[in-house]
Amino acid sequence: MYCVKCGVKLAESEKKCPLCNTTVYHPEISQNDVQPLYPQNKFPKIKPKSKGFNGAIIILFFIPMLISLISDWQNDKTLNWFGFVAGGLVLGYIILGLPNWFHKPNPVIFVPCGFAAAIVYLLYINFATNGNWFLSFAFPVAGGLGLIISAVITLLRYLKKGRLYIFGGTLIASGGFILLVEFLMSITFDIAFIGWSIYPLIVLALLGGLLIYLAINSAAREIMERKMFF
Amino acid sequence: MSAKKRPLRWVRLDNAAKIYPAARRRNWSNVFRQSVTLYEEVDVDVLKSALDVTVKRFPSIAARLRKGVFWYYLQQVEKAPKIKNEYSFPLSFMSREETRKCAFRVIAYRERIAVEFFHSLTDGTGAMVFLKSLTAEYLEQKHGITIPAEFGVLDRKQKPQAEELEDCFPKNKGSVPLSRKDTDAWRLSGEVQTDGFLNLTCFQIPVKDTLDLAHKYNCTLTVFLSAVMMQALLNLQKEKNPNVKKQKRIKVLIPVNLRTLFPSNTLRNFAMYTVPEVDPRLGEYTFEEICKVIYHKMGAEITQKHMSGMIATNVNDEENPFVRVIPLPIKNMVMKAIFDSVGERKSCLTLSNLGHVKLPEIMYKYVKRMDFILGVQAAAPYNCGVLSYKDTVYINFIRNIRDAELERHFYAVLHEMGLEVTVESNKRWEV
């Protein structure tokens, strides 16, 4: 019996060509009595991922939370600083523990989630301490940083090429981010804007620009490879 | 009075075996399969009885993988494992839990007896001795015949020999280690089967016609089949990436049985490898040129001197006192990181040829065919195991991706040369 499409000779057990997937049909040959090379539809039982490890992690986070709760309460029968500890532990669990529940945790989802949780925690601290720095400083700084890191992770994960563009762009964005941090510090905490952030911005922008130039110019890239290989 | 119970034997992992437990992943472990297909249906009860006898003769293969503080070790199993049923695909994942109990499986399906080995136990040659001995014991018990201990069949009544349990790497290492530095190869890729299904495609070609062709190109069967594989890989890469300048090197890893170079009767791992390569950026290769590249590469490297240098590189690392005192979990992390970053990048796939399998004369009328199947690599979707038995070469491709694109190209190369190819698979009928 031969495959009508690719012409390969097929063993009797084949109902479709293993090479081109064409259905085997021969009007004079009955395939009813043929046994497959391997049994059909028999799969090993896939054990669900052990929850024991993740349970242990939860307990590891829960114990200090409980000790903090009791210590804080025993002091003057009110909760004063417990919220900070609990918030910190929950944030730590969201970043370190939560991804372990998934078979293949995708950083493109979990990194922004971690930053979002950090922003919520900062908001809580801002209200709990009657601060006035969340909207003008903490939110844009944490949000900006989260945006840059998430963008890099997403691009590295889903783009197979263009690493030099990604790293070059990240360096330039990081320089701009440092400038933003100094500016926000000056307007939130009344610190004079002296422009120290210009220096890292210039260095990072030059380095980033160099990487992008190398990405564009293959001749320059080759020279760099020749001079810098190790 | 009951006889004094002999303590179970244990052995350190040999030099090559050490990487496999460390390199394991959540859904991948390095396992390979060898099988015999008989002319009659396998009697599972007799097979169980034959296995009970055979495991005692092979304490380093019928073993489980255990953890020490600094290294893993193998401990002989107390009793033979149960005979397992076949799944829809070979080489299903062997978990840590499973290797801790028993690091090999015996599977019966219709006329087939298959044994799947975790690679730390042995290599293809050692595994073949185990399979032949198990089959001989089965046939003796089933048919009341006497099979002589020859052609790799061991006498099951004999005690295990010290030389069979020996790690032959340290004593054959050279004085100067060779560099491991090597270039990266083209990476095969495709849509991975989400349910863990492994696609097996077995090509069967006549030994005589294939050898005639190989001799026409002045090469051996291994060189010829490796050249066909490289030609198929070149054609596939060209189809996927027509821009020659951006194409990558085509490299095939060919395991080398060191027993043919060094005096050894070990049943442990004792193999090294050679990796012939062609670079498509240098221009189109004719088939003759590919054969020459492989032939000369193998000729230059499959020598005592070169192999002892390669052995020295690995053994020196293992014998380094600083490495030895590092606790096992840290060693595992470092070895896994090295394996992931270097291990499989240096070749497109492995093509392992066990050669022409011979059996004691009396066994031929009971054994219809034999197969050798490698597991897929950790990060690459293909591997290929070859052996010839009677008048047929069995070439088993395994892949964890959907499309049989490499197999199509491989067939096209064979077909163009005028070889009659029969193909068989574990393809699901209703899909």
Order of helices and strands of chain B: EHEHEEEHEEHEHHEEEHHHHEEEEHE
Q: What's the overall geometry of chain A?
A: flat
| Share of helix of chain B, binned | 25-40%
Q: What is the name of the CATH class of the largest domain in chain B?
A: Alpha Beta
What string, H for helix and E for strand, traces the elements of chain A in order? Answer: EHHHHHHH
The largest sheet of chain B is: 8 strands, mixed
How would you describe the overall organization of this protein?
The complex is a heterodimer of chains A (230) and B (431). Chain A has 230 residues and is mainly α. Among the domains of chain A are: 1-39, no CATH class; 159-230. Chain A is 63% helix and 1% strand. Chain A has seven helices and one strand. Chain A has helices spanning 52-76, 82-97, 107-128, 134-158, 163-189, 198-216, 218-228; one strand at residues 9-10. In chain A, helix 1 (52-76) packs antiparallel against helix 2 and helix 5 runs antiparallel to helix 6 (198-216). With 431 residues, chain B is α+β, with helices and mostly antiparallel strands. Chain B folds into two domains: 10-155, Chloramphenicol Acetyltransferase; 182-302 and 337-354 and 372-425, Chloramphenicol Acetyltransferase, CATH 3.30.559.10. In chain B, 32% of the residues lie in helices and 22% in strands. Chain B has eleven helices and 16 strands. Chain B has helices at residues 19-23, 44-57, 96-101, 124-143, 207-216, 221-240, 287-301, 304-319, 321-324, 328-343, 405-416, and strands spanning 10-12, 31-38, 63-67, 72-76, 83-85, 104-109, 112-118, 199-206, 250-257, 271-274, 277-278, 349-357, 367-374, 382-389, 392-399, 422-425. In chain B, strand 5 (83-85), helix 3 (96-101) and strand 6 form a beta-alpha-beta unit. In chain B, helix 5 crosses helix 6 and helix 6 (221-240) crosses helix 11 (405-416). The longest helix of chain B is centred in the N-terminal third of the chain and has 20 residues, at 124-143. Chain B is globular. The mean pLDDT of chain B is 92. Chain A binds chain B through residues 6-11, 13-20, 35-44, 46-47, and chain B through 85-90, 92-93, 95, 109-110, 195-197, 199-202, 204, 404, 407-408, 411, 415, 420-431.
